[in-house]
Structure formats: structure tokens, C-alpha cells
Amino acid sequence: MVSPRLAPGVDRVRRGLAAAAAASPGLRRVLAVAGRELSQAAEAGRRDAAREPDDGDYGGRYFGEGRDPSGDRQGLSGYATYDRVSSNADIAAYLLWRNVRAERSLDVGCARGYLVEALRELGVDARGCDVSTYAVTHAAPGARGFVAVGDLASGLPFADGHFDLVTTLEILEHLDPAEVPGALAELRRVCRVALYATIPSFGVSVSGPHGHFEGKVRPERLDHYRSLGDDFEGPVPEADLAVDADGHLIEGHRTIASFGWWTARFAEAGFERRADVERRLYADIEPAGLAPFWNLYLFAVPGTPDDRFEPREPGRSLAELGLVHPLLDADPG
Known about the structure:
alpha/beta, two-stranded parallel ribbon
């Protein structure tokens, strides 16, 4: 629609073009083609403005948009049925609030921010970041305004040592092995006290249930990897990683390694593993039935005093708080 202020001028241009076209068949053809091209360009611009940003592998489809929530994973993720309850965000938030004294936290790979929302309800100044613009713009109500787009590869938009607690849940396995050292260095840069991670791992755990190869390695290669014993730390070569029916890596997992391998990488980045705190974490989530499914790690910045890990409410269990949501498929991808 033309603005009333501009209408007289537009009408004069139209009349002039119409008169010129009537006098010249060649000009009439040029104007017709130009009109079609302009209309097509305008329509393309309208569609582009309405379309979600291109997030690569982590756009709307990854987070369930247009997929069947009754169980359609399509090799992408479990986010089609993912919400605050199924993500166990309340359990994770209480677990962290209880075992790590932190005023400010950052959840790297926060998706829609369910953990951020739950931690804020517990009084933590929680923030989050994710590579997916879609996830950030569709954040949970209590996380809106506290989550932002951020990428470990290009650097997180936060100052050095800004957060007492940094969390990264089911994220690091999505990186290529060569990208892991740089990502962990960036996590260490923004972390002042502690880092909590869950990472699908295999092999011996010093604090909880051991890991396994099932679901991580191609079925025909399971016997081979089981035969390697505890000395094999990984990572598993990409050619042997589990794939879906379309041949895509399951959930986009690219780094599948042992507890020992991950511990060594975090040590190189400047973290100290706190197996004593991890044992408390496993004890807390045991009533929820999650211990076998959460391969968890708790790391401290060297020199962090022990009172930072003094548990709150040591006499209460998660079960007493009603935080028991068994979820046999706890990994959204």
C-alpha cells in the first residue's frame, strides 16, 4: 500500500511509464519483465523475513518443529518430546544448588533454557547460551532474557572467570575430537569455581556406574571394542560410531571416549576432577533412577576451597522433595 503522502508522485510515474510503454513495444516488454522480477524478489524477501534463521544441524527440526511427538526422532534428537519435566531440569538444578555454592552460573548448550529457568527459581543468577538461534528465540518463559546465542568455537560472549558454576549437559560429544581442547579451554576461561558436565562415556568410572559401548558403537563392532579392555581410552573412530537408518551419526555424536580420556582433556584445560563430589551427586540421583544414564563429571578450578562444595540440606533426599522422574532415555541428543 502506498503512503497517501507519496501517492500523487507515484501516480505521475505510473502515467509516464504507461504512456512510454504505449508508444514503444520494446519498452513495454522490458517493463513487463522488470515487473515480474521485482514481484518475485519482493516475495522472496517476504519469505526470508518470515523464515527462522539457518542454524545448520540445530534448527527447528532438531528441536521437534514439524515432527511427530509420539516418537519421531528421524536421527535428529529426542527434542520432539522434550520439556522441563522430561529433561529432568528440576533434578539437575536442585542437584547443583545443593552441592555447589554458586551465585552465578552459565549453562553452555542450554537449548531452550529449562535448567536456567529452574536454577533461577532456586535463587541462582543463571544464564545460558546455545549455538541455535531457534532454541534461544523459543526459550522457556523463565529463561527468556537470560539466554543468548554463543558458540564455544568462536568464543563465548562473557568475561574471564565470570561464572562460579559452568554446566554443559550432553554437549561436548557433539564436537569433533580435534575441537575438544579448544572448547574446554574456553569453558575454563569463563569458569571461576566449578564445572559440571554430563558426557556419554565408556570404561571405568571412579565415582559411579561404569560406561558402555552399546548405543555408541556400530553393533557389528561391539565385540571388537569390548575385547580391547580398560586400556582403550578412545576416541572411537568416526567410521565405527553408531548411525541411524539414514546413515547419520546417532544424535550427531562425534566424540565417544572413555572417562579417562575426558578426565585427561579437562586436566589439560586446567581443571581438577572432584570424584568425592561426584559420589554425592550419584547418591542424590540414585532414587530418580538416573545414575546409570548420567555419565557425570564435576571439576574444580585449582585452589577452590572445599567449602564451595559443602552440601546444602544434607539430610533431605530428592525423593522427599518429589524430584523423582525416571526417564530411561535421558539424553535428548
